[in-house]
Design goal:
heterodimer; A: about 120 residues; mainly beta; 7-stranded mixed β-sheet; 4-stranded antiparallel β-sheet; B: about 0% helix; globular
């Protein structure tokens, strides 16, 4: 079974702090993704990565950056946290090929509160 | 502009009855569709998918129907159970484009009442 783990389930930070959210997958997947989920807005893609050291902006990259130094690990960084970044953050991974096409496997999520 | 739309934010159904969740899309290049289920405080889990070359896919109590001409798909759950209460996300992708990224709808919260 694919396992995607996220470093924290719940996190409380203060405005202006630098925040690191870590995600690790154990299936040697090439693609990894960071989403945020907000009520009424669904899942919105922040950043994704096709491979090590590669990254692409998603739909809402402002205020975020990412790092992928190793294939299994994808980090989301909030350089200076703000209250509007309070959200549920979800990491996902996807391997190339196989069925069903394009299935992404999600981690349990990190509920981030910025005070 | 939303490419994948779930127009019903919530749905309430009696246990044992059918639940029908709807999803519309605008991009005719989408060729693969997935449904995810999400419980509170957990990540979404894959439920069922359908390729654009099919019009129906069934897995136990779950059936997904695709109407390409109407750009519409629906998820049927029969019979509905209280454990099905969750948020359901419809997602679409163009396998040959954008590295197969998924475009998600905003979700429908299903409540199955005992």
């Amino acid at each position: 079974d694919v396992k995607v783990t996220q470093s924290s389930r719940y996190l409380v930070k203060r405005t202006g702090e630098k925040v690191f959210l870590e995600c690790v997958q154990d299936m040697d997947h090439e693609n990894m993704f960071w989403y945020r989920q907000d009520p009424g807005l669904g899942l919105r893609l922040i950043y994704f990565s096709y491979d090590v050291k590669m990254k692409e902006k998603g739909d809402i990259p402002e205020g975020y950056s990412v790092s992928r130094e190793k294939k299994e690990r994808f980090s989301l960084i909030l350089e200076s946290a703000s209250t509007n970044q309070t959200s549920m953050y979800l990491c996902a991974s996807r391997g190339l090929g196989g069925l069903p096409y394009n299935e992404q496997f999600f981690g349990p999520g990190t509920r981030l509160t910025v005070l | 502009d939303q490419q994948v739309k779930q127009n019903s934010p919530s749905l309430s159904v009696q246990e044992g009855r059918i639940s029908i969740l709807n999803c519309d899309y605008t991009n005719s290049m989408f060729d693969y569709f997935l449904w995810y289920k999400k419980y509170p405080a957990e990540g979404p889990t894959f439920l069922i998918s359908i390729s654009s070359i099919k019009d129906k896919n069934e897995d136990g109590r779950f059936t997904v129907f695709l109407n390409k001409s109407a750009k519409h798909l629906s998820l049927h759950i029969v019979p509905s159970q209280p454990g099905d209460s969750a948020v359901y996300f419809c997602a679409a992708s163009n396998y040959g484009g954008s590295q197969g990224n998924l475009i998600f709808g905003k979700g429908t919260k299903l409540s199955v009442k005992p």
